[in-house]
Write a structure and sequence with these properties.
This protein is of the alpha/beta class and 535 residues long. The protein is 50% helix and 14% strand.
Length: 535
Amino acid sequence: MRSQNIQKDLSLIGDNLINKFIQKDKILDGIIDHFYEEKNILKKTIDKKEVFPDENRKVLVDQLKKQYSEVKLHKETSKNINSLIDSNTFTITTGHQLNLFTGPLMVIYKIAQVISMARYLNSKIKNFNYVPIFWLASEDHDFDEISYVNISNEQIKWDIDSHNNRVGKIILNDFNRITDDYKSKIIDAEFKIQLEELINQSYINEDSLSFSTLKFINSLFGKHGLIIIDPDKKAFKELFIENFKNEIIDSRCKIDTENQIEKNKKDIGSYKPQVNPSEINFFKITSKGRKRIRRKNNAILVDDEKEYSTQEFINQIESNPERFSPNVLMRPLFQEKILPNICYVGGPNELKYWMQLKLFFDNSNLQYPILKLRSSAFIIDQKTSLKIKKTDVELEYFFKSINDLVNYKLKKLSTVNVSFDSIKETLSDQFNKLRDVSNKTNKSFEGALNAQEKKQMKGIDDLEKKLIKAEKKNHQEQINNIKIIFESLHPNNVDQERHLNFANFYSVKGQALIDHLVDKVLIPDDKILVINLED
């Protein structure tokens, strides 16, 4: 395996807020706390040490030990769990939904990245210790989003009725048919049997999806010291009782998030919130699934349940906090309450909702973590690598838009200049000279000049498009070849990392693929990691 970093085309991101985040624009002051830099990590660590309670560390370590009591625990993970009792140990965290068999590749990349970051910070910052955390989104209830996995250009779907329950609590009944279907799609390479054994050991009928996911990810990353946490525990919810109560008493999340959204709109052009806050931003867990909580006059109403007075509902929170579950906007606060966390690694959409929460954190007297954009990556198998070499197109163009790729290839193939840029520039210069003449004689001609320039430019654009179309026809076979390669890297018109599962790449390289990712995935936000499996 070999890797290289390719410059990311920021125009493809299409989001002003994330582009400014990548560029570390100072306009984000007040939207985030600090950008990811070594000196800021150190400052955040010192500040966090002053305020994170020792009793929270004890709860965290106790619950992690209970959680791992029935899991094969690697010595590095055990060491990291025990270290969390120390006030000099802090976490670098990412999280994701409980996708089947880890879901799309980006989940693997996020996990590898927090491991790599913790390792790097431990080599650079003395007197403190950093451990990697993967937060299982076990309380999420959107089963449709996690009920399938894409492998070998086919989708495997787990088609059951989740009854709106937390996905982590779903029991694997008759799940062998899903694992058998998945395993049948794994290409027959050197490490297929090894991967199948990991699947058989992790996904067992009558286990919960949360526990199965924990075992599977642990089997891949445990040797690197990754700590996986399932937060759906009563002991963790007890730490969050006051925050649940504040949401009922004064709508803290809704008010602060709406104020932050207004600030963001003022500071960032074209800003749109990722998530709009609800009246009350947590759910109640009932025998009929996870239910929304609403206000009705002076009462609290739970969907499909009776009305409660505010005090009755607060009493329920105090006596049974495990029956309540934060939504997407309160979840970050819950996470930071449990973990001595310094940095959160997330994708663009995750960071966008985190960037709605700075005021909510401040007014909840909780430190806002440093945010880091997850690394983007592509894996190229040997067959695709050979095809790319034959195209005579530089690798970087396969990670731009399809139009950029095709036009670049046409320029290399064409015996004529398919670009009319120089003609357009000359025409623009000529009309500028005509405008100068018009201004000295009769300014009323300027409108007619502008209309004529627009007409002439459109005519040249039309001619250019016809020429490009004709050239594409002349080189149709070669253009089709590069389109096929592009589509293999962007299946269903999305990046490979958002669609494909890791299995077929693991089948070829085994644990070496995971180890390679951990070594290479820590790259700048404006770069893309490209891993070539060709030896």
